[in-house]
Amino acid sequence: MDVLADVLTVTQLASAVLGCSKLISPWALEVSPDFHASVHVIIRGTLWLQIEDRDPIHVSTGDVLLIGAGVRHCLLEDRAYKPLPYRQVLDEMERRLTDVGEGPADIAAEILCAKYRFEHRERHPLVSRLPSFIHLRATDVALNPQLQLLSQLLHIEASQGGAGSDLVVPRLVDSLLVFIIRTWIELRPEGSIQSWFSALRDPGIRRALQLIHESPDAPWTVESLAQGASQSRASFARKFAALVGETPAAYLTRWRMCLAARALRDGQKSVEAIAGEVGYDSAAAFSKAFKRHYDQPPGKFRTAS
Questions:
Q1: Do residues 23 and 65 make contact, with C-beta atoms less than 8 angstroms apart?
Q2: Which of 5, 60, 127, 207 fits 121 for a cystine, CB–CB 3.0-4.6 Å?
Q3: Which of 243, 132, 141, 152 is nearest to 187 (CA)?
Q4: Domains in the chain, start-ordered, CATH in brackets?
Q5: Tens of pLDDT along 184-225?
Q6: Side-by-side strand order, sheet with 84-85
Q7: What is the model's pLDDT at position 305?
Q8: Rounded distance between C-alpha atoms, residue 268 and residue 284, angstroms
Q9: Nearby residues of 221 by Cβ (< 8 Å), 6 or more positions away
Q10: Is residue 259 within 8 Å of 216, Cβ to Cβ?
């Protein structure tokens, strides 16, 4: 069980918003905060990333940026330029490219962009604790051949498309997010990542998470999870809480509720069936736990989703 991919699959509501923007000098664009997380892959060019009140960050060809949901940011050819709303800038670029043609010398930058929307991102520690931005430099990307090749393939699909592109692109965009976060985790020094992400680097705690994700309906206890992690109960409980940020029982409940919320949104199964799939003996017990977690009963949640 790939815990990282599993969490992203369950908590991600929609993706596959993909585009490739070619920019002619001078240019500067602003992306207003919304409920989407953004990925920018710099295909060519150099630019500056301005995130809210932080100092500008220099970005170059081959770099990859992941900007968290709700984070205002600007991409600037020059720090002295005043940014305009990104849609206004891209529309202007399309008009200018039509007028002047598309000679390589005319393009100052080319950026591949994707967006991700997460449902109830505060409900899972991975999504809620993503940093406001991740910056992978080209040298970092080069250490991960999968991420490098996937970026190249997405660029081709965004630029040229082709038969089956509508089917292929969403899966590639989903994979892109997994590889970006995986690369970021692997590159961080030990102890530099807090909470859930550091748990993925600890063999015992990662194994416990895998067990929970493989069989969320199983009657897990601290003892059985500690045994699966090959640790003593006391040591396991302390380390799990320190790395994940909550007790094993709390995490198990949180994950079951994430799964239940997805099933309710899908609308294909009854509350009774969902209750059994996430480890509850009765619909009543499940409904009580769900209401405590989401502040509304399952039926109302399904109607509102």
A1: no
A2: 127
A3: 141
A4: 3-187 (2.60.120.280), 197-304 (1.10.10.60)
A5: 888 876 655 555 777 888 899 999 999 999 999 999 999 999
A6: 57-59, 47-51, 73-76, 28-31, 84-85
A7: 67
A8: 19
A9: none
A10: yes
- What confidence tens digit (pLDDT) does each residue in 31-70 have? 987 767 889 999 999 999 999 888 999 999 999 999 988 8
Distance of CA 139 to the CA centre of its chain: 21
Task: Write down the pLDDT at residue 17.
Answer: 64
Detail the DSSP E strand segments found in 45-184.
47-51, 57-59, 64-67, 73-76, 84-85, 109-118, 133-136
158-187: b or e for each residue (b if 16 or more CB lie within 10 Å)? beeeeeeeeebbeebbbbbbbbbbbbbeee
Residue with tokens 């670029």: 93
Residue 232's alpha-carbon distances to 81, 215, 224, 237, in angstroms, are 59, 21, 10, 8
Angstrom distance (rounded) from CA 25 to CA 83: 13
Does the global pTM surpass 0.85?
no
Amino acid residing at 107: I
Short-list 137, 128, 138, CA closest to 37:
128
